Amino acid sequence: MLQHGPPLAFLDIRYEIVAFTGAIVVLALRSKEMGPGAANAMIVIDAAAIGLFSVAGTTRALNAGLAELPSVLLGVVTAVGGGSLRDVLSGRAPRIFERGQFYAIAALLGSAVFLGCDRAGLARETSSIVGASACFALRVLSWKFNWRTRAVRSDRV
Hints:
Layout: H1 8-11, H2 13-30, H3 36-63, H4 68-89, H5 104-119, H6 124-144
């Protein structure tokens, strides 16, 4: 969206390592019957990915000179966009469209916390860890305790 150089995944090998590690884990788990432990591991891995990519998208936007709000929004789009593409390619409905999921909200928190730490003068590495951890924690806690968002509108006609 920014048209500002190559994608981050091509500039920093850590993004590729995370993506390939996740793919290998998925392939290993898919080759066996996925029990509750494997399904739980997938949710935790996905929560970590959302946190990392929300911070990466926000960082990229800030580096491109975008203001705070567009940077946070781009962080959210980066985080949920990759997961949505993964879900579609694997034949599932994207999690972002599942009712009640703390998916985009977790990405929003991660991006906002990263931005707040960055603006408070913390080092980018520290801000990244804190932002990604906040996103991860909200996503995992919402899953563990079955926290749900309320519907914005009623389905009744």
